[in-house]
Amino acid sequence: MGIIRKTKSLKRVLDTFQKSDAAISVVQLIDNMKHHMNKTTVYRILDRLKQEGIVHSFHGKDGLKWYAKCSDHSSHQNTDTHPHFHCNHCGAVECLPIDIQIPDIPNLQISSAEVILAGICSKCNP
Amino acid sequence: MGIIRKTKSLKRVLDTFQKSDAAISVVQLIDNMKHHMNKTTVYRILDRLKQEGIVHSFHGKDGLKWYAKCSDHSSHQNTDTHPHFHCNHCGAVECLPIDIQIPDIPNLQISSAEVILAGICSKCNP
DNA sequence: AAATTTAATGCAACTAAATTGCATTAGCAA
DNA sequence: TTGCTAATGCAATTTAGTTGCATTAAATTT
Ligand SMILES: [Mn+2]
Ligand SMILES: [Mn+2]
Ligand SMILES: [Zn+2]
Ligand SMILES: [Zn+2]
User: Fold this and answer.
1) Sheet holding A109-120: strands in order across?
2) Residue nearest to nucleotide D10 (CA to C1')
3) Strands A55-59 and B24-25: what pairing?
4) Measured between alpha carbons, how far is A19 from A39 in angstroms, rounded to an integer?
């Protein structure tokens, strides 16, 4: 595992994540890359980057897929349960560097959690 | 608001929710109803039931839409932030009657939260 | 009980996200 | 430079969800 060819396409996508902490939707990323690579390629690159632990994915408030860079400290591959905030006004999504406490539930073996918070972000706030 | 014709189709869908507390995916519900009504009708009935506060919706771990009956006590239309559990093994989804504490985040106005937990349910457990 | 009104439905066409198969290209190591 | 094969492009496909419009059937009125 871990065999990655550093193709131009991969570098370009990787760059997007390294330049900013912001999460990006697949739809948006495909659009950003449309003059440089095929959408199928974007999907496949995201798969690889995720497998390598370089990015993580989750679903935004509308069920669409988003990706964001894994921050250095939060690379606990499995137990990375930080929440995400989706702005209802501008549509931006950000990773929140906090820990949501998931209580133990009797009879349930919880192995992962997705927490998506929605509201108004700081930029859209008065 | 609240004008609802008690059509045969609506009664049939309503019955599904009243007979069980389990959540059901739209995909599954459409399949269950396929001999009795059109999928468009299912979508529209779900919209109405939700508007009436009879059911609530959320996204499962794969981003698909699920619905479940609103329990009598949890009909705080807005602040209903109970989590949902999605079994990785059998695919069942259940509403969890617990409260997840969402901490205040500086600069963010959080108005809703979706918490989806994944793992192994009691039936799939040893 | 018939006529009226219009919410609700069926259906086909459509949109959009995500996936797949296959021929071609380009990283990279020998 | 050559050879291997991971990676890509592209077109077709799948699937969730939506829309427009003609038709049907609840509910209300006569
Ligand atoms: Mn994140
Ligand atoms: Mn629920
Ligand atoms: Zn915003
Ligand atoms: Zn299960």
Assistant:
1) A93-95, A84-87, A109-120, B109-120, B84-87, B93-95
2) A38
3) unpaired
4) 21
Closest listed residue to residue A98, CA positions, set A83, A111, A110, A85: A83
Residue written as token pair 């690379």: A75
Whether any strand C atom is under 7 angstroms from the Cβ of A64: the reply reads yes
Top CATH class of A8-119 equals mainly alpha
Phi, psi dihedral angles at B47 (to 5 degrees): -55, -45
Domain definitions of chain B by residue range: 8-119
**How far out from the chain centre does Cα A104 lie?**
26
Residue B111 to residue A88, Cβ atoms within 8 A: yes
pTM of structure: 0.92
- Taking the C-alpha atoms of residue B126 and residue B121, their distance in angstroms, rounded to an integer, is 10
Tens of pLDDT along B112-122?
A: 999 999 999 99
A108: which chain B residues are within 8 Å (Cβ-Cβ)?
A: 85, 117, 119-122
pLDDT digits (tens, 9 = 90+) for B41-62: 999 999 999 999 999 999 999 9
